[in-house]
Specification:
This protein is an alpha+beta fold. 29% of the residues lie in helices and 49% in strands. It has a 7-stranded mixed β-sheet with strand order 2-1-7-6-5-3-4.
């Protein structure tokens, strides 16, 4: 269909999905991107965050942890370092990660900030996906 996109999400360990969708929202490093069929081609780096897509009138979500997205007018391909579907997320683990990262951020030195901030963003994205699943 001309009003749909083919969405493929791949990590180094597996092909997570290969589906037809109506819309995709990505966590680009410069902010969230909304992609519809016919989008101008682009290549973007991905931040840690939530990928949302709409298929058959229903929104679905997952978490990606860095990577790249290639957008073509009829296709979105995501190559992620790591990606998790809602049923693969452990809520208790993510709550502990979030709380631990918040505690460490209060005392962390500049050199370690990015790693701790990544832990925090990862946990928050996972919890956001679970909250909407």
């Amino acid at each position: 269909m001309a009003d749909q996109l083919h969405l493929e999400i791949v990590t180094r360990h597996r092909r997570l999905m290969d589906v037809e969708v109506d819309e995709v929202r990505l966590p680009g490093v410069m902010g969230e991107l909304g992609i519809l069929a016919g989008h101008t081609p682009l290549l973007t780096a991905l931040a840690i965050g939530r990928v949302a897509y709409t298929a058959d009138g229903q929104e679905h979500q997952l978490v990606v942890k860095n990577g790249f997205a290639e957008v073509q007018p009829d296709r979105v391909t995501i190559l992620a370092r790591e990606a998790l579907l809602p049923d693969e997320i452990d809520r208790d683990h993510e709550l502990k990660e979030r709380d631990a990262a918040n505690a460490v951020l209060k005392t962390v030195d500049f050199d370690d900030f990015e790693a701790v901030d990544g832990r925090l963003r990862s946990a928050e994205a996972a919890l956001e996906v679970l909250g909407k699943a």
